[in-house]
């Protein structure tokens, strides 16, 4: 990755009218309905943006949208990139760097995840308070990383406490059941075995997914405050494990998404 590549991506988007967004939003698997809330939206398809990776997952849309939500300018990723698609960690996190260069001051991230904590149920929303990186690498482990920021990034509080507290207050006010916990990020795309679910629980994970953590590491590198939520789409009980049904996961994500949209929109109002 070079500064020149980033500049080419950003110049293309600015020429399309992507003008100094305040908030960047990453939408997870099955969580695309938020784009319907964007007013005066402009669209840039990933395959048209210079140096951008291409989305290869069938239920990931593959476009960047710009517009306003609650009178704030936003840029929204509808469709993200994953290691399991064959990308590397620089590809996966490239859009975060582009959104930062466009001018975002805050980053909202969503994902679909499996509940490891058996007190949590499918259809719940979990506010991510901390994470465990099990993807076997770092998006900061490249030769010229110092050109983009400090090589050694503090991760003692990777998720912004101010925005987390705001989300907790909004959930209480709106009577939205909100869990809080630790998200573990694995490579995938295969789902976990019973033994792996037991291991994740022992490690202290409350939920597991295949995204988010690389994006959060890069956002911390860029000193971007982050808030992240998981929509819990399945219950990972190793003693009563049923075969995974991807269509059911997408369906549950879709049913739960309106609550996530409410949290994000109300949070945007307060910023």
Structural description of this entry:
The protein is of the alpha/beta class. It has one domain: Rossmann fold. It is 31% helix and 24% strand. The longest helix is centred in the C-terminal third of the chain and has 25 residues, at 246-270. It is globular, with a radius of gyration of 18 Å. The mean pLDDT is 94.
CATH superfamily: Nucleoside phosphorylase domain
* Pattern of helices and strands: HEEEEHEEHEHEHEH
Oligomer: single chain
Instruction: Report strand %.
Output: 15-25%
The number of helices is 6
Biggest sheet overview: 5 strands, mixed, barrel
Distance between the termini: 32 Å
What level of helicity do the residues show?
Answer: 25-40%
Q: Which helices and strands appear, and what pairs or packs with what?
A:
Blueprint lengths: L2 H13 L7 E5 L11 E7 L17 E7 L2 E7 L10 H14 L3 E10 L9 E9 L27 H13 L4 E8 L8 H10 L3 E3 L3 H9 L4 E10 L10 H25 L1
Parallel strand pairs: 1-4, 1-5, 5-9, 6-7, 7-8
Antiparallel strand pairs: 2-3, 3-4, 5-8, 6-9
Summary?
With 271 residues, this protein is α/β, with parallel strands linked by helices. It is built from six helices and nine strands.
